[in-house]
Design brief:
single chain; CBS-domain; transcription regulation; alpha+beta; CBS domain; five-stranded mixed beta sheet; Udp-n-acetylmuramoylalanyl-d-glutamate--2,6- Diaminopimelate Ligase, Chain: A, domain 1; Tscrpt_reg_HTH_GntR
C-alpha cells in the first residue's frame, strides 16, 4: 500500500479554510504574514483566517513570536531534535537574556567550559558553540567574535560593550545564578534526553506525505470498491467525506454479498480505528495487532486523512530501529547495565539466566533492593531471553510480581526467565530472582508477541 497524503483538488479548494492553508504553504520560508492581510487578499473573514493560522502553527507551517509577528517557517526535522537552541538553554538554566535576542532560535552543537587560559579556550570555541564561563569580560567578547553564544554563571552580568556586540552579531549572552558545574550538568542532561527521544521512532518518521493515498469517497459504491481493489491489488481502503475526514473503512468482507450499486456508506465499518502521526511505531504495532487490522489511517486532530500505514511497514520500521546503535541510555538501560547472561547451567535448568549485582543506587526506602527495580529487571530478563532465542520482541500485557523476602544491597542475584507458553501471537513466562539464600522474588508475565527482527 502506498503511504502518502490524500489529495483531491476539488475538496482542497472547496472550503475557505483549505484555501487559506494552501495559500500559507505557497509562501516562501521567512515571509511575514498577518491575519488582516490574508483576509483581505482572499476575501474571507479575519475569524476564519485566525482559525487557519492556529492549525498552521500546530502543523509547523508558521511561527508566531512576540514583537515579530507570524512568519512562514519550515517544518522542523526530527533529526535535529538532539540540537538545543540557545532559547531552550536559557529556560533550562533559568537564564536571563541580556543581549543577542535575535539569535535565540539558533542551535548549538556543543558547549565549552571556560576554566582555562583565554588562548587555550579559544581553540575549542567555534561557530554554534556555547561558552560557559564566569565574570571574564575578555572571554565574553572573544567568544562572541568567534560566533559562539555566552552563558555567564554565578549571577554576574555582562558589560554594556559586550551586550552591544551580542545584539550586533545576533548571538545570545545569558546569565544564570547557578554555578558552572550545575549549568553544565543541566545542559548535558537535556542533550542526552534529546538523543533518547531521537531514537524513539514515530509514525511521521516512516511515512511519506507527498503522494495521494488510495481512498473511497462518501457516495461511491461497492462497484467502485471493486474497481479500486482490482487496480491496486488491495482489499481495504479508508472512506472519506467531502472534507477528507475519515468516516469509515471499506474491506472485501464488507462488500461481500452486496449489490454493486450499494453505497459504501451503508456497508462500510464505521468509526474505524485511526492514529495521530506523532504516536510511536511501537504503539501503532500494538494497536494493529490487538485489533487485527493491517491498515491504519493516520489523521490530524480533525480526523482529516493524512496518510495510511500498513502493518508490514510498521514491523519493517521496528526491525530497522532494532539494528541501530544506542544513542542514549534510558533508566531501564542503566538498571540492566551490570547484568550479563550466565554461562553456568544448573543440572535441572537448560534455560537462559542472567547474573548481576544490586548496587546502592538500586535501593528503596528501607535500604533493600527496590521492589519496582526487581520488577523491571524481571521484565528486562524476559525481553532479552525472547530476543536472543526467538529474534522477536513483545508488548507487555500483564505482570504479577511476588516478593518472597528482601534482597540486600551488594547481593549477587540470578534472574531466570522460563517460558510456559510461546506462540506466534502470545507468550507467558515465569521469572525468578535468586540470591545466595534462594528464591527472593517471582513474577508471572503475559505479553503480545511482535516481529521487529
Amino acid at each position: 500500500m502506498r503511504v502518502s497524503t490524500i489529495h483531491d483538488p476539488g475538496s482542497e479548494s472547496g472550503t475557505k479554510h483549505e484555501q487559506i492553508l494552501q495559500h500559507i504553504q505557497s509562501l516562501k520560508i521567512g515571509t511575514k504574514i498577518s491575519v488582516r492581510a490574508i483576509a483581505k487578499a482572499l476575501h474571507v473573514s479575519e475569524g476564519t483566517v485566525y482559525k487557519a493560522f492556529k492549525e498552521a502553527e500546530a502543523s509547523g507551517l508558521v511561527s508566531t513570536k512576540e514583537r515579530i509577528g507570524t512568519v512562514r517557517i519550515d517544518r522542523k526535522r526530527r533529526d535535529a531534535l538532539d540540537q538545543l537552541t540557545f532559547g531552550e538553554v536559557a529556560q533550562i538554566v533559568d537564564g536571563r537574556l541580556f543581549g543577542g535576542g535575535d539569535g535565540l532560535d539558533k542551535s548549538l552543537h556543543k558547549f565549552v567550559i571556560g576554566a582555562m587560559e583565554l588562548d587555550a579556550m579559544l581553540r575549542y570555541i567555534d561557530e554554534g558553540s556555547l561558552l560557559i564561563v564566569g565574570n571574564r569580560v575578555s572571554a565574553h567578547r572573544c567568544a562572541l567574535e568567534q560566533g559562539a553564544g555566552v552563558l555567564i554563571t554565578g549571577g554576574f552580568e555582562p558589560s554594556e560593550e559586550v551586550i552591544r556586540l551580542a545584539d550586533e552579531l545576533a548571538l545570545p549572552i545569558l546569565s544564570s545564578r547557578h554555578d558552572t558545574f550545575t549549568v553544565a550538568s543541566l545542559i548535558n542532561r537535556a542533550m542526552f534526553d534529546r538523543l533518547i527521544k531521537r531514537k524513539i521512532m514515530l509514525i511521521e518518521d516512516i511515512v511519506t506525505f507527498s503522494r495521494p493515498a488510495d481512498v473511497l469517497r462518501s457516495g461511491e459504491t461497492v462497484a467502485d470498491f471493486g474497481r479500486l481493489s482490482k487496480k491496486t491489488g488491495y482489499i481495504r481502503f479508508p472512506v472519506v467525506d467531502e472534507r477528507g475526514r475519515v468516516i469509515g473503512m471499506m474491506t472485501a468482507k464488507d462488500a461481500a454479498g452486496s449489490a454493486e450499486d450499494t453505497p459504501v456508506d451503508k456497508v462500510m465499518t464505521r468509526q474505524p480505528i485511526t492514529a495521530a502521526p506523532n504516536i510511536t511505531v511501537t504503539s501503532a504495532a500494538h494497536t494493529m495487532a490487538a485489533e487485527g487490522i493491517d491498515l491504519l489511517p493516520i489523521v490530524d486532530r480533525h480526523r482529516k486523512l493524512l496518510t495510511v500505514v500498513t502493518r508490514q511497514e510498521v514491523l519493517d520500521a521496528m526491525r530497522f530501529a532494532g539494528k541501530q546503535p544506542e544513542s542514549g541510555e534510558t533508566f531501564e538501560d542503566l538498571m540492566w547495565a551490570g547484568f550479563m547472561q550466565s554461562e553456568e547451567k544448573d543440572a535441572d535448568d537448560a534455560g537462559i539466566s542472567y547474573k548481576g549485582a544490586i548496587t546502592p543506587q538500586m535501593s528503596g526506602a528501607l535500604g533493600m533492593a527496590s521492589e519496582g527495580l526487581l520488577s523491571t529487571l524481571m521484565a528486562q530478563a524476559a525481553r532479552r531471553m525472547i530476543r536472543e532465542t526467538g529474534k522477536r520482541d513483545f508488548l507487555l500485557e500483564s505482570m504479577t510480581s511476588y516478593y518472597v523476602r528482601p534482597v540486600q544491597i551488594d547481593s549477587e542475584i540470578t534472574i531466570k526467565p522460563r517460558p510456559l507458553e510461546l506462540s506466534r501471537k502470545f507468550s507467558k513466562l515465569e521469572i525468578e530472582v535468586l540470591d545466595r539464600q534462594g528464591l527472593a522474588a517471582k513474577a508471572m508475565l503475559t505479553a503480545q508477541m511482535i516481529d521487529p527482527y
